Amino acid sequence: MAAQQSHMSFSFFLAILYAIFGFFFLALSPEALLLASVVVVIAGLLPNVDGGQDGAAKEFAGLLAAVLPLLILQSFPSLQSGGVARMALVVVCAYLISRVFVVRFLQTCTVRRGIVHSIPAAIITAEIVYLVFYDLPKGQRAYLFFAALLGFLSHLLLDAYSNFDLIGKASGQTKKQPPALKLFGATWGKTIAAYGAVAVLGWFVLRDVYPYLHFDAKLVY
Fold first, then answer.
1. pTM here?
2. What is the mean pLDDT of residues 57-73?
């Protein structure tokens, strides 16, 4: 398994390349380029939150604790009318949810190199990023979508590359690592939950891209 420092360095490298691509070929604003670069780096480190190990889960919870209050206050403007006391309550509740419940969930419900290290998890991450930044133009949201997908998949590919230990295999001293690029979880329940999340979030993304999309169910007798 690649070290955390390797993932961070590789993510920074990809973020720079992705920003250069967006600047020269898409003519995006500096704000969008910087945001996409941050998304690439965060997505490149995100798979290591599984199992609650190496401090990655706590770092993710800290980031979530900073972003979640903004999302809540933006989604429910009425909470802002309650003054400092109500907004402080939102911040504290978001902090407790992120640093206690989210970390505990990752420690108890995920395992190292489990379903989080999978292609469905990469798609879920990209879909969430697309839906979170709902106030941006669709072109920039698509750019962020692929930024998250690129960062997440780069982590999986780096882990998959680190699995190839030809010298260790030849000497019989290598320890078999779980696969990094996987399509299914260890149990059917986790697999169904992952693909269910992909389908549900994908439906919201599809409805956002095509707002007039609808299906008519007609019975023919």
1. 0.83
2. 86
